[in-house]
TrEMBL record:
Keywords: FAD, Flavoprotein. This is FAD-binding oxidoreductase. Residues 53-233 form the FAD-binding PCMH-type domain. It comes from the Bacteria. It holds the Pfam family FAD_binding_4. The lineage of its organism: Bacteria, Pseudomonadati, Pseudomonadota, Alphaproteobacteria, Hyphomicrobiales. Belongs to the FAD-binding oxidoreductase/transferase type 4 family. The keyword Amino-acid biosynthesis does not apply.
Length: 487
């Protein structure tokens, strides 16, 4: 059920509902079965993971081919009908949520075929609606690795991953969705198809349309297919938790790890004790990786192209140096694949484990890696000055400088009263981020939630360029209007 958004969102557009006649014209393109209007059947497309956005739409269309997507867009452009593209509906900033009975939600989930795997060039060509986990599985069946990995990988789709330029835990070694993408096919606002499914690693023929579509959050085109890079599967993997005293020590350990492992360092996540406590309390089947508690934990993953033994040796060498230098207090190395997966599971469940603790004010920020400890110190001081008993659970991708700076309500506090501080706390935290040359949206995007903050804080010249690009791609403002950039 949709709950009241804890933050003030831009008002819903008051577009008139679409006429029955127009809905019927759209429905005729995909067939009645794939034009959903019954409230019960529409509900999963209108709700979203955190229950913050109250979705409304005239109809949910589920095209089964690129031609159908193109026909929808031609009609939408002719009739000036707003279209909200949707993938797995796991986005956290409301970009995929339609907001008006005058809008159409367009789900690409039926475009779900793996089109081709090229084992020599190491690429996979997929429809946009293929679920991320299925891309990973298809790569594995071909003896290769698709390294994009997110907590939502069982339901998010590759088109959504590209539209939001998803990050996740593999960015440190392999880059985000943008860096993994070689080519894109997309239907533009006019209904014209952009045929960019190239497998080229080099292509310097002018402006890069693919890279404009990546991260465009459904505002420039509907992604229908993509060519993604694959990698050799590591021959060995080793995962460990290290207990450290502070974020400074975690950063020191990162430097040691990079020296020992370089390109084989495939994970470096940091977690506070409070986060681990939440996981141990609320996530079934988890157990403390170490006997004694530590203030902070680092999850390290080493992947070796040579062997298991090589991965183990590298892990042992870096942890030994960490011990000798007084950085690591204790460590637990996973003894099996199952234990390695269990270690990762604890990290992946961190966000969900906060839910039973009541309201949580969330941030998805990044600062230069070297400044993460300083950021935490300053942000903690600002937050605790405003809400002294707030429980700060800052965790994330230390190797990327990306902190999920989440703040749980004080024990026993009134949830609504706590959440009413959302914007105030955002302001305090984002001010520290800005001072350090960081970003208030490291991987989740802008959508509706952060649209106005983007407009307020991004330099005017950059906003003008973004509006100009939007106008060029979508002069009638029918693609996800009101999201990311207003014009
Ligand atoms: C438990 C959990 C963990 C998460 N972890 C991470 C994480 O580690 N890193 C991270 O980056 N994100 C994370 N996310 C956020 C989310 O999963 C990602 O943003 C994901 O890439 C969205 O994919 P989706 O298919 O669900 O897209 P949707 O949510 O459906 O859409 C997201 C945006 O993309 C647009 N869009 C979707 N499909 C298309 C298309 N085919 N063409 C054009 N535009 C399209 C939508 O309009 C919307 O603006 C997490 C979310 C959850 C719920």
């Amino acid at each position: 059920m949709t709950k009241k958004a804890p933050v003030e969102l831009p008002a819903d557009p008051d577009d008139a509902p679409l006429s029955g006649e127009l809905v019927a014209r759209f429905a005729a393109i995909v067939g009645e079965r794939n034009a959903i209007t019954a409230p019960h059947d529409m509900a999963p497309y209108l709700a979203e993971p955190r229950g913050l956005f109250d979705g409304k739409a005239a109809v949910v269309l589920r095209p089964g081919s690129v031609d159908e997507v193109a026909a929808i867009m031609r009609l939408a452009n002719e009739t000036r009908t707003p279209i909200v593209p949707q993938g797995g509906n796991t986005g956290l900033v409301g970009g995929q949520s339609p907001r008006s009975p005058g809008h159409i939600a367009l789900s690409v989930s039926r475009l779900d075929k793996v089109r081709d795997i090229d084992p020599v060039g190491r690429t996979i060509t997929v429809d946009a609606g293929v679920i991320l986990q299925n891309v990973q599985d298809a790569a594995e069946e071909a003896g290769l690795l698709f390294p994009l990995s997110l907590g939502s990988e069982g339901s998010c789709e590759i088109g959504g991953n590209l539209a939001s330029n998803a990050g996740g835990t593999g960015v440190l070694a392999y880059g985000n969705a943008r860096e993994l993408c070689l080519g894109i096919e997309a239907v533009l606002a006019s209904g014209e198809v952009y045929h960019g499914l190239r497998r080229l690693k080099k292509d310097n023929r002018g402006y890069d349309i693919r890279n404009l579509l990546v991260g465009s959050e459904g505002t420039l085109g509907i992604i229908t297919g993509a060519v993604m890079k694959l990698y050799p599967r590591p021959a060995g993997r080793q995962v460990a938790y290290a207990g450290v005293a502070s974020p400074e020590q975690a950063l020191e350990l990162l430097r040691v790890a990079e020296r020992h492992a370089s390109g084989s360092l495939t994970g470096f996540e940091f977690i506070p004790r409070l986060g681990l406590d939440f996981v141990l309390k609320h996530i079934e089947g988890t157990r403390d990786p170490m006997g004694e508690p530590h203030a902070w934990y680092v999850l390290v993953e080493i992947s070796s192209s040579r062997s298991e033994e090589d991965a183990s040796q590298t892990m042992e060498a870096l942890l030994s140096e960490g011990f000798e230098a007084g950085i690591v207090e204790d460590a637990a190395i996973a003894k099996s694949i199952a234990e390695a997966d269990a270690f990762w599971h604890m990290r992946e469940e961190m966000s969900w484990a906060q839910k039973p603790e009541g309201g949580s004010i969330k941030h998805d920020v990044a600062v230069p890696v070297a400044l993460v400890p300083a950021f935490l110190k300053k942000a903690d001081a600002a937050v605790l000055a405003a809400i002294p008993d707030a429980r700060i659970c800052a965790f994330g991708h230390l190797g990327d400088g990306n902190v999920h700076y989440n703040i749980s309500q004080p024990v026993g506090a009134d949830t609504d009263a706590f959440l009413s501080h959302w914007r105030e706390i955002n302001g305090l935290v984002h001010a520290v981020v800005a001072e350090m040359g960081g970003t208030f949206s490291a991987e989740h995007g802008i959508g509706l939630l952060k649209r106005d903050e983007l407009a307020r804080t991004k330099p005017a010249a950059e906003m003008d360029l973004m509006r100009g690009i939007k106008h060029l791609f979508d002069p009638n403002n029918i693609l996800n209007p009101g999201k990311l950039v207003q014009f």
